[in-house]
Amino acid sequence: MNDALIKNEVEINFMRTSGKLLAQVFKMLDSYICEGLTTMEIDTQVEAYIVDVLNARPASKGQYGYKYSLNSSVNEVVCHGVPSYTYKLKSTDIINIDITLEKNGFISDSSKMYVMSTASPAAKRLVKTTYEAMWQGIKSVKPKARLGDIGHAIQKHAESAGYSVVREYCGHGIGREMHEDPQVLHYGNPASGMTLEAGMTFTIEPMINQGGRQIKTKKDGWTVITRDKKLSAQWEHTVLVTQTGYEVLTLREEEVAV
Predict the structure, then answer these.
(1) How far is the C-alpha of 46 from the C-alpha of 52, rounded, in Å?
(2) Is the pTM of this model over 0.85?
(3) The pLDDT of residue 2
(4) CA quadruple 199, 182, 144, 204: dihedral positive or negative?
(5) Cβ atoms within 10 Å of 1's Cβ, excluding its own
(6) Which H or E element spans position 240?
(7) CA-to-CA distance for 148 and 129, rounded, in angstroms?
(8) 14-18 — which CB contacts under 8 Å span 24+ positions?
């Protein structure tokens, strides 16, 4: 085992702080996001809240040359949607807001789907199933489990509902850096891959497509969409492997009962 993958208690507490702050950002967004907003307005609001209210840093801004504080992925956008001054949320939209936050040198990463007022039943079902698939993965986390157990649980739940799992993007270790080892695939075989140990921290963030799993990147070099233009959904949490199971470091208030 690479010792760098294992966080000590001091580092874990810093990760907890970062995760709790990020959960507060989404709580703020719950009463902010609405039809008619541009995705750039959401980005501006989030950056101001992280910097001015939480005294933290939006970790995505400047990472790999990215200029914004979040990804805003609407409808057929799988991930890495770039905030826009021109796109206004419609009543039929679903949108994923993906945010990273750094505090005291440690980064948390989470995303949430927002469903607008007249989104279709099919869109709502995709969003709900994707959320359930993420939790199936999370609930597989415990010492001596394997990374393949996580991917298998997600893939089984998504595909049994008739959806496909994006394979080009995955979860990742996280801590002092946004992307650390290991890679956490959202598909795979049980009892395969790295063995989990207490103190590991990583994201679980399945991207589930309504149609085929094939994707393509738009000319902006960032925005990834479904090749068949059907809907895609994603949820994400940062997770700690504990001595007995897991702790979701970015858990939001409304999820306590999950």
Answers:
(1) 10
(2) yes
(3) 56
(4) positive
(5) 11
(6) strand 237-241
(7) 20
(8) 14/103, 14/104, 14/105, 14/106, 15/106, 15/108, 15/175, 15/201, 15/238, 15/240, 15/249, 16/249, 17/103, 17/104, 17/106, 18/56, 18/101, 18/102, 18/103, 18/104, 18/106, 18/107, 18/108, 18/249
Whether the CB-CB separation of 202 and 246 falls below 8 Å is answered with no
In sequence order, which residues have a C-beta less than 8 Å from that of residue 48 and are 6 or more positions away? none
Q: What percent of the chain has pLDDT over 90?
A: 97
- What average pLDDT score do residues 53-70 get? 96
Residue type, 48: A
Task: Name residue, tokens 């679980």.
Answer: 204
Q: What is the separation, in whole angstroms, between the first and last Cα of the chain?
A: 31
Q: How do residues 183-194 score in pLDDT, each as one tens digit?
A: 999 999 999 999
Give the three-state DSSP class for 183. Answer: strand
Residues, the chain, total? 258
The CA-atom distances, in angstroms, between 15 and each of 7, 52, 128, 201, 219 are 9, 20, 27, 9, 35
User: Do the beta carbons of residue 153 and residue 203 sit within 8 Å?
Assistant: no
Is the per-residue pLDDT at 93 higher than 80? Answer: yes
Task: Please provide residue 202's backbone torsions phi and psi, each rounded to the nearest 5 degrees.
Answer: -160, 165
**Omega of the bond prior to 206 within 30 degrees of 0, cis?**
no
Retrieve residue 31's tokens: 């009463």
β pairing state of 237-241 and 246-248 = antiparallel
DSSP 64: G
